[in-house]
Design brief:
With about 180 residues, the chain is of the alpha+beta class. Helix content is about 45%, strand content about 30%. It has a 6-stranded mixed β-sheet with strand order 2-1-6-5-4-3. Strand 1 and strand 2 form a beta hairpin.
Length: about 180
């Protein structure tokens, strides 16, 4: 008859401890991976949302060229700390002042269209910066169609669940400079 040796109580406890540690390590790793995946998804969602806000700004800008300033008001934050340094050469601070500038440009009904090209996005937790060229055409004060290519920087801030424009800066357009 062959006799088998029964595991001792000590070796059973040791095995249980090892299994417990392995299980804890697996659970901790899974939670860490889930947290990283969640952060990556949130960052990707913010990237998509900022680029959508930027596209909404350019759609609103093109509507403004027809005289309609209402879409611009939906894109911008209405806070006192917003700034606008546009093609007219002014440095506007605060939503009420920024809105007056946009209303003045809308009244010109420049027509035409511009699109962002060569965009670069810098994304933070609640601030984002988009740099690009604004390229297209507008009509000048003499009624002549002019090609436009301006350097532009747009700053967005996360307000609640939405990304709102809080700053926009472009080169000057000689026919708009005040």
């Amino acid at each position: 008859m062959v006799r088998t040796r029964q595991p001792s109580v000590v070796s059973r406890r040791g095995a249980a401890s090892v299994i417990g540690m392995v299980f804890a390590l697996i659970c901790t790793s899974a939670l860490a991976f889930e947290a990283l995946a969640s952060e990556a998804l949130a960052a990707e969602n913010d990237k998509v949302a900022v680029l959508a806000a930027n596209a909404q700004f350019y759609a609103a800008l093109n509507k403004m060229f027809t005289g309609d300033v209402v879409p611009i008001t939906a894109v911008w934050s209405h806070a006192d700390d917003v700034t606008y340094m546009g093609p007219t050469g002014t440095f506007d601070r605060g939503w009420n002042t920024v809105l007056k500038d946009w209303e003045g440009q809308a009244a010109l009904k420049l027509g035409g269209r511009v699109e962002p090209i060569e965009m670069q996005l810098l994304l933070g937790q609640d601030l984002a910066v988009v740099t690009d060229y604004e390229q297209g055409e507008n009509t000048n004060a003499n009624g002549k169609v002019e090609r436009v290519k301006l350097r532009a920087t747009s700053i967005f801030r996360k307000e609640g669940a939405k990304w709102k424009m809080v700053g926009h800066h472009t080169d000057l357009l000689p026919y708009l400079a005040k």
